[in-house]
Amino acid sequence: MISPGFLFTFEGIDGCGKSTQLALLREYLSSQGVPCESFREPGGNIVSESIRDLLLHSDHPITPTAEVFLFSAARAQLIEQDIKPRLEQGITILMDRFFDSTTAYQGYGHGVMDADTLQKLHPFATGGLLPHRTYIFDLSVVEARSRTQQQEKDRIEQQSEAYFERVAEGYRQIASTASRYMILDASRPIGELHDAIRGDVTSWIHPAQGE
User: What's the pTM value of the predicted model, to 2 decimals?
Assistant: First the structure.
């Protein structure tokens, strides 16, 4: 019988370095012979990518409440079509954002719903799926924005500095709510962060391989 794969999610404000760390981890796991795939949110398949384009590049106003449900719809499609089948095949999944992003960006950033209400909503989109570990990259908004100042901004990235301060604080609050969260100082060197994540992931995967 095939053991289910692991689900690791990467979270933080734009510019925190999470995507870089996800790519490094995927490269490492692949080099160790661990079946591994990565996905981004929103996106990952035709339906979810179409919703992503609407959310991030629409010229028409989208209300914060509508954002919550559009992100959730993209997530539901991705999980049912792609994530759950792969986990059942024993493939480890690395996610660039998951439902914690909705809590941080729409919940804390826009104040659409309180965190408790969002935590009741998320299971409808995820089918109750929870990550084994969520890495939250904590970085000051000033430094994050300096890292991305030369990049073209999508609709959400164009929000104000005050908005991102609320999002960053939201992530800090989220990180204190469950043991699955591992908060990382994203100002540390890339190699140090990778070593910390790699060590943590190994502590999950290797014991399972030995069962």
Answer: 0.94
Residues shown for the chain: 211
Cα angle value 95/101/105 (rounded, 5°): 155
Q: Which segments of 109-189 does DSSP mark as H helices, in order? A: 115-126, 141-148, 161-175
Q: Which of 91, 46, 101 is nearest to 71 (CA)?
A: 101
Structural domain boundaries in the chain? 7-209
Q: What is the DSSP letter of 2?
A: P
CA–CA separation, 150 and 148 (whole Å): 6
Cα angle 36-41-205, degrees, rounded to a multiple of 5: 25
* 174 neighbors 136 (Cβ within 8 angstroms): yes
Q: Is the pLDDT of residue 209 over 70?
A: no
Give the C-alpha separation, 6 to 14, whole Å.
Answer: 25
- Listed in sequence order, the residues at least 6 apart from 154 whose beta carbon sits closer than 8 Å to its beta carbon are 56, 57
Q: In what order do the strands lie in the sheet with 133-138?
A: 36-40, 92-96, 7-12, 133-138, 181-185
Q: Specify the CATH number for 7-209; select among 3.40.50.300, 3.30.420.40, 3.30.70.3340, 3.80.10.10.
A: 3.40.50.300
Q: Do 65 and 112 meet the contact criterion of CB atoms below 8 Å apart?
A: yes
Q: What is the pLDDT of residue 1?
A: 67
